[in-house]
Write a structure and sequence with these properties.
This protein is 41% helix and 26% strand. The relative contact order is 0.13. The protein has 107 residues and is α+β, with helices and mostly antiparallel strands. A hairpin with a 6-residue loop joins strand 3 and strand 4. A 3-stranded antiparallel sheet has the order 1-2-5. The chain has 4 helices and 5 strands; from the N terminus they run H-H-H-E-E-E-E-E-H.
């Protein structure tokens, strides 16, 4: 539950969260070394990336769902020349926020 999580010191003042700030906060909160905390943060993001890249879904309860979506080939315009071009089909990551996360943002 996002409402019951106590906000770490750094998170309360930073408007931008990075892997480094997450690792620094984990190190302080749990007494880990910064290296161990950075490895934990990298592990989480590496796992999410690998699962989604393989066509799976990473669902984090109370936060949201990451998945891969297919985009069909389509016709677009070259902005420089105005010429019609074909944009090839591609795969993209997609994130859908959970209701809990949406509610926390809309407080």
């Amino acid at each position: 539950d996002l409402q019951s999580i106590r906000r770490p010191i750094n998170m309360a003042t930073n408007k931008v969260v990075t892997k480094k700030t997450l690792a620094d906060d984990l190190a302080v909160k749990f007494g880990w070394t910064k290296k161990d905390a950075a490895e934990a943060v990298n592990y989480v993001f590496d796992e999410i990336t690998a699962v989604v890249a393989d066509g799976g879904e990473a669902s984090i309860n109370g936060f949201g769902k990451f998945e891969r979506v297919s985009k069909k080939a389509r016709t677009g315009l070259n902005p420089s020349t105005g010429e019609k071009i074909t944009i090839p089909a591609s795969e993209s990551p997609k994130f859908k926020a959970s209701k809990t996360f949406k509610d926390a943002v809309n407080k």
